[in-house]
Amino acid sequence: MSNAISARWNGFMNNFKGPWTRERKWALLKKIGNGLMNNMLFILMFIAIVIIAVKNNNFLKPAAIINIISQTAAYLPVALGVAGCIVLTGTDLSAGRIVGLTACVSASLLQAVGSSTKMWPQIGVIPIPIVILIALLIGAAFGAFNGFFVAKFKLHPFIVTLGTQLIVYTLLLIYVKMGNNNGMAISSLDPSYTNFIKGSILTIAGTAIPNYVWIAIVLTALMWFIWNKTTFGKNMFALGSNEEAARVSGVNVLATTIMVFALAGAMYSVTGFIEGARVASNNANSGLNYELDAIAACVIGGVSFVGGIGKIRGIVIGVLMLRLIFIGLTMVGIDQDLQYLIKGGIILFACALDMRKYLVKR
Amino acid sequence: MDQALLEMKNISKSFPGVKALDNVSLTVRPGTVHALMGENGAGKSTLMKCLFGIYHKDSGRIFLDGKEVSFKSSKEALENGVAMVHQELNQALTRSVQDNLWLGRYPKVGGIMVSESIMKKRTREIFDELGVNVDPKVIMSTMPVSQRQMVEIAKAVSYDSKIIVFDEPTSSLTETEVEHLFRIINMLKAKGCGIIYISHKMEEILRISDDVTIMRDGTWVATRPASELTMEEIIRLMVGRELTNRFPPKTNKPGDVILDVQHIKGKYTRLKEATFQLHKGEILGIAGLDGSGRTEVLENLFGSMTREGGKIFLHGKEIRNRNPGESIKNGFALLTEERRATGIFGIRDIEDNTVISSLKDYLVGGICLSEKKMRAKTDWAIQSMHIKTPSRKTQIRSLSGGNQQKVIIGRWLLTKPEVLLLDEPTRGIDVGAKYEIYQLIIDLANEGKGVIMVSSEMPELLGVCDRILVMSGGRIAGEVDAADTSQEEILTLAAKYV
Q: Which chain A residue's Cα is nearest to B298?
C-alpha cells in the first residue's frame, strides 16, 4: 500500500523535474485549473459553510448540524431510489406522490387507539413491521408498474411516470376521504410510531439524533451494496450505459428495468413511512415535489442523465448540499424567495460542470 | 500542370493508440477528378474529416485557391465552396426534399418568413440542371437510398462548390444511376470543379478519374495519373505487403460435428432459410453481400432476433436459444457487428466491460460479487488478449478499436463458450491488430471451440476459415472449401438469389 502511495507521489513530483519550458508551465496550469473545476462544487460548499458560519455563530453548533443531518436523512431514500432510474437514462416523476400515498397509509394505520379523529376506528394497533411491509409493497408495486411500461413498451420513463403520478394522486385523494377522515390531515399518531421514527437512542451535546437518521444510514449502506456488489447492480449500470450491448451480453433487460423501478418505489415508501410520523399531519398534498428535489440532488451529486454513471457517495453529497443551502440561507437571513434562484443556479452549474467530463473532444 | 485548386500538405492526426494520418498530402487540380484509394482504415475518411474540420488535424496545412484555410466545421467549409457527399447519409428523414436541400440557409421573405415557393422553384432549377427527377415536396424517408443520395449531390452542387468530395457514392446505386452520376460528375468537371472521389471500385476509378492517390495505413503511398495505372498496380500499391503475411498459419484441425442447424428462419428479418453444420475446432465463414442475411444467421442463432422456425442441435441435443441469456447458458457467444452501438459500454471501465457476461462466476455466498475474482479475470483478459491499456479502470471508449474488440472477445471467453459467433470481427481495426485477432480466432479453434465468422472482406474469409457458406437473398447459396475457392466463385454464388 505504502509502495503505491510513494509511487504516486514520485509520479506527482516528476511533474516538477527538468527544465521549465513554456509548454510545461501551461500544461501544469491547465492541470491545476482542471483539478479546481472538477472539485468546484466542494470548494463552493466549503466557501458557503465558512460564510454562513461567520455570519451566524449557531451554524456550527451541534443543534444546527444535527438538524441538517436529520433533514438530509429524511429526503435521502427518495434520492437513492430515483438515482437508479436516472442511471437507466430515465427519471421518475411519481416519487413524490408515492411518498404522499405511503405516508398517509402508514399514518392512518398507526393512529392512536381511541383518538376522535381516527381514520379507521375499528382497527387496533397494528405492529410497526407489518405497516412498514404494507408501505414497501405499495411503493414497490407502483415502481414495478412504471418499470413494466418502460421496459415492455419502450416508453420514455418521463411519460410513464407522468401518467403514474396522476393515477397515484387520485388514489391518494380517494384514500384520505375514506373511513372517518373526510380528507383531513392524518394526525394523533400512536406513540409507538412517533417514538420509532422521531425518538432517539443517541444524544450528542444535548441534541437528540432522531431514529430515522439510522434508517437512512442503513438504507444507504444497503443501496451501496446493491449498486456495487451485486449482479443486479452491475447489470443496471451496463443497461444504462448501452441497452443493446447489455441485451446481447445476456442481461435480462425487462427484469432489470422493472427491478430498478420497483426498488425505487420501495425507497420512496420508506421516506413515506418516515414522513408519516415526522410531519405527523399528512394530507393529499404530502410528498408534493419531493421528486424534483431528489432528481436535483442526484444530478448535483454526479448521477448523470447520460446514463450508466453514478455513485451513492455523490447522491448523499447532493442531498446534503441542497439541505445545507436551504437551512444555511435561512440562518443568515437571506430572503426565502431567493432560495429557489440559488437552487436553480446550483443545479445548472453542477450539471454543466459534470457534462464537461463526458463531452467528447476530437 | 494547372495551378492547384486544393492543396493538403503533410496532414497528421492521431487518436488514442492509433496514428490515423501520418504526413499525408493531396493536390487537386481544377476540372479534374482525383480518386482517393486505400483499404478500409487506410485513412481516407479521416483525411476528409480533417479537411472539413470535423476532426482537428494535429499538424499540416491546407490551401484553397492558394489561400491557407482551416475550417472549423463542415458549414464553414461549405460556405467556402468545399462540399461533401457522405457515405452515411445524414439527412432529416422526416422532412421534405427541399427542406433538406436548403437546411441552414432557407430563402426568406421579409427577413423572417421562410418562403416555400422560392425554395421549390430553386430546387426545381437545380434538379433540372442535374437531370434529377424528384418531387421537391416528397418526404425523404419515403424515397429509396439512391434518390436520397441524388438529393445530397444536388445539395453539394447548390452551394456552387469548387471542391466536391464523393465518399463511396455508388455503393447504393444501380448501374443506370451510376451512369447518371458520372454524367453529373463530368458536367461538374467541365465547370472547372475539383472532384475528390473515394471508392473501392477499381473499374469506376479507372474510368472516371484523372489522378489517383493511394493511401495505406494512414500514410501517403503514391499519386499517379490514372492513365498510367492498371488494376494490378493499384492493388499492389494499396496492399503494399506480401499477402502471405496477412494471416497467421492455420493450425486448427476440424473434428466432429458439434452444432447442427436445421432450417432456421427469421420472423421479422431477411433470413429465409439456413441449414448447416459446425465442427469442433472449425472456423466456418459466412460470405455474402450486404443485406444477404449473414448477420441475421448469427443473431437468429443467438436468440437476439426472433426465430420463426427451425431446430438447433448442440451435441445432438435440441436447444432453443430463445434469448441471449439462454444462449449464453448453452455455451454461445456473439461478437456483434456494430461495436460501438451494441458491443461496448463506452463510459464504463475495462473491468465492467469484461465481467458483464459472466457475473455469476464471481458471486460469494450467492449475492455478493467478489472484487478480487473480477480483478483477476480482468487481468487475465488484458494479459492473454494483449490489450494495450493504462489500467483496468480505464474507460473502454478511450481505447483503440482493436483493443476494444479484444476486451469484448475477452468478455465472451470468460463465459467459456463452445460456439463463438463473430460478426465482422475486424471491422474498423488497423492492420496490425487484425493479425492479432486472426491469431486469436485460430487459437480458439485450436482449443476445440467452433467459430462462425461473418465478414465482408473476402481475403479475410479465405485466409482464416476452413469452409465458407455463401449467403444470397436470405438463403445459403452454396458452400465452398476455403482452401480451393476463389473470390470469383464466391461472388458468383453471392449473386445467385439477388
A: A248
Q: How many domains does chain B have?
A: 2
Interface of A with B (CB under 8 A): 225, 228-231, 234-235, 237-238, 241-242, 244-252, 306-309, 358, 362
Q: Tell whether B1 is covered by a domain.
A: no
Q: Measured between CA atoms, how close is B346 to chain A, in angstroms?
A: 7
Amino acid (1-letter code) at residue B230? T
Range of the domain at B324: 245-494
Q: In terms of CA atoms, which chain A residue is nearest residue B49?
A: A362
Closest residue of A to B360, CA-based?
Answer: A231
What residue in A sits closest to B336 (Cα-Cα)? A248
Q: How many CB atoms lie within 10 A of CB B397?
A: 15
ipTM: 0.78
Residues B235 and B249 both lie in one domain: no
Which residue in B342, B354, B358, B423 has the most chain A C-beta atoms within 10 A of its own C-beta, making it the best mutation to test that interface?
B342
Split at pLDDT 50, 70, 90, the class of A360 is low
Are residues B223 and B296 both part of a single domain? no
Hey, is the C-beta of B56 within 8 angstroms of any chain A C-beta?
A: yes
Domains of chain A: 60-356 (1.10.3470)
Domain end residue (candidates: B182, B212, B240): B240
**B200, B268: one domain:** no
The answer to whether residues B238 and B40 touch, using CB atoms and an 8 Å cutoff, is no
How far away is chain A from the Cα of B187, in angstroms, using its nearest Cα? 36
In three-state form (DSSP H/G/I as H, E/B as E, the rest C), the secondary structure along chain B is CCCCCEEEEEEEEEECCEEEEEEEEEEECCCCEEEEECCCCCCHHHHHHHHCCCCCCCEEEEEECCEEECCCCHHHHHHCCEEEECCCCCCCCCCEHHHHHCCCCCCEECCCEECHHHHHHHHHHHHHHHCCCCCCCCEHHHCCHHHHHHHHHHHHHHCCCCEEEEECCCCCCCHHHHHHHHHHHHHHHHCCCEEEEECCCHHHHHHHCCEEEEEECCEEEEEEEHHHCCHHHHHHHHHCCCHHHHCCCCCCCCCCEEEEEEEEEECCCCCCEEEEEEECCCEEEEECCCCCCHHHHHHHHHCCCCEEEEEEEECCEEECCCCHHHHHHCCEEEECCCHHHHCCCCCCEHHHHHHHHHHHHHEECCCEECHHHHHHHHHHHHHHCCCCCCCCCCEHHHCCHHHHHHHHHHHHHCCCCCEEEEECCCCCCCHHHHHHHHHHHHHHHHCCCEEEEECCCHHHHHHHCCEEEEEECCEEEEEEEHHHCCHHHHHHHHCCCC
Please indicate, yes or no, if residue B58 is contained in any of the structural domains. Answer: yes
User: Do B327 and B369 have their domain in common?
Assistant: yes
What mean pLDDT is predicted for residues B310-339? 92
Instruction: Please indicate, yes or no, if residue B76 is contained in any of the structural domains.
Output: yes
Chain B stretch 266-285, residues whose beta carbon is closer than 8 A to a beta carbon of chain A:
none
Domain finish residue from B206, B221, B240 = B240
Residues B202 and B339 in one domain: no
**B78-117 pLDDT tens trace:** 888 898 887 666 788 888 898 888 887 888 888 788 888 8
Both B222 and B260 in one domain: the answer is no
Cα(B272)–Cα(A71) distance, integer angstroms:
62
pLDDT digits (tens, 9 = 90+) for B466-490: 999 999 888 999 999 998 888 778 8
pTM of the full structure? 0.78
Q: Indicate which CATH number applies to the domain containing B50.
A: 3.40.50.300
Q: Are residues B329 and B180 in the same domain?
A: no
Q: What is the DSSP letter of A58?
A: G
Would you state the cell numbers that stand for residue B22, as one nine-digit string?
501520418
Q: Is residue B280 part of a domain?
A: yes
- Tell me, yes or no, whether B289 and B399 share the same domain: yes
Matching residue, cell 476528409? B48
